[in-house]
Design goal:
single chain; six-stranded antiparallel barrel; 8 helices; Elongation Factor Tu (Ef-tu), domain 3; alpha+beta; 352 residues
């Protein structure tokens, strides 16, 4: 599949790769340069492969609360929250963002690889008084991220970018939201699919540098933001993934709640930990064995060379007893083991 911006990426020199069935740019000028642009200036990513669901009706908030971990009913109009869709075992089907457009209307942004599965799961459990629409095919989206994103926002929309995160504005047929996946300030811009090429050109003219999936991955990994399908899966709960802040066990019943309540009472068996390599090593990738005390205990779920830190970094589920910062581990790369250490999240922090 291709987003409406495929030709724009090719024309800009984007190197296209398969991502969840989509032809997407992995880089343009290079991952390091694009990563630096987002950390120090402003970059733009095509996120049109993501899914958009609209939920409306008098029962919409209560219905979403029965499916998702966070407290949707408490969400004020014009704001957003991160949440998770779980199976009965408490495992993660998908992580997503819920935007409250009004008292009885919501927008959900879901992961590209999960659009059809999420839509089927939600439709199968649709409640009375709720209308569900999968509008993914009709929308394109851009993520404009970096410390200079506010200037791009002003040049595009003639107004100041909201200072607060997790805000959503409707501007004509577009939605502009102050969310992102890089750890930098910025916004995401949703528009009708037919307007994507024009929006892309306007954003580039306003100063944003085109960036691909490679930089998006290193940026999010430095912040320890989990990637669904890699760091999040149906085999691990949000509590194991360190996402308990986004789980409200005090609200009425939701799918997976009983499993999470039991796990919270008994203690999690493993934790998703941030690892930083402490010696010179080849780049770390997903599925590399992780050793503790001479025994292989798990594998990395994500891994990369951190452009900001200059070291290899990774995420991995470690047994709970070995998950505290300071725990020493080894990561096996092509038959050799390299020393690493559990670090406090996030791995990258801006200087004050």
């Amino acid at each position: 599949m291709r987003t409406p911006l495929f030709d724009s990426h090719v024309a800009a020199g984007g190197r296209m790769v398969d991502f969840a069935g989509w032809e997407m740019p992995v880089q343009y000028s290079g991952i390091l340069a694009e990563h630096k642009a987002v950390r120090e200036a402003v970059g733009i990513f095509d996120i049109s492969h993501m899914g958009e669901f609209f939920v409306s009706g008098p029962g919409s908030a209560a219905w979403l609360d029965s499916l998702l971990t966070n407290n949707v009913a408490s969400l004020p109009d014009g704001t957003a929250q991160y949440s998770l869709l779980l199976n009965e075992r408490g495992g993660v089907i998908d992580d997503l963002i819920v935007y409250r457009l009004g008292a009885e209307k919501f927008l959900l942004i879901v992961n590209a690889s999960m659009i059809e599965e999420d839509a089927a799961w939600m439709n199968d459990r649709l409640a009375g008084g709720v209308t569900f629409e999968n509008a993914s095919a009709g929308f394109a989206a851009l993520a404009i991220q970096g410390p200079l994103a506010g200037g791009v926002f002003e040049r595009l929309f003639g107004r100041e970018m909201p200072a607060e995160r997790n805000r959503i504005l409707q501007i004509g047929s577009d939605f502009v939201v102050t969310t992102g996946y890089t750890g930098e300030s910025g916004f995401e811009w949703l528009m009708p699919a037919g307007e994507a090429s024009s929006a892309w050109r306007r954003a580039l003219d306003a100063g944003a540098k085109p960036c691909g999936l490679g930089a998006r991955d290193t940026l999010r990994l430095e912040m320890c933001y989990p990637l669904n399908g890699s760091d999040l899966s149906p085999n691990h709960t949000p509590l194991e993934a360190g996402l308990g802040y986004f789980v409200d066990l005090n609200k009425p019943d939701f799918i997976g709640k009983a499993a999470l309540a039991s796990q919270k009472a008994d203690g999690v068996p493993s934790r998703l930990c941030a690892l930083r390599v402490t010696e010179k090593a080849p780049p770390i990738r997903p599925h590399y064995p992780v050793w503790i005390d001479g025994e292989p205990v798990t594998e990395t779920t994500s891994g990369a060379l951190s452009p900001s830190l200059g070291d290899g970094i990774a995420l991995a589920y470690l047994p709970a007893g070995y998950s505290k910062p300071g725990q020493e581990v080894e990561i096996e790369v092509r038959g050799r083991r390299f020393r690493a250490c559990v670090r406090k999240k996030p791995l990258y922090q801006k200087e004050a």
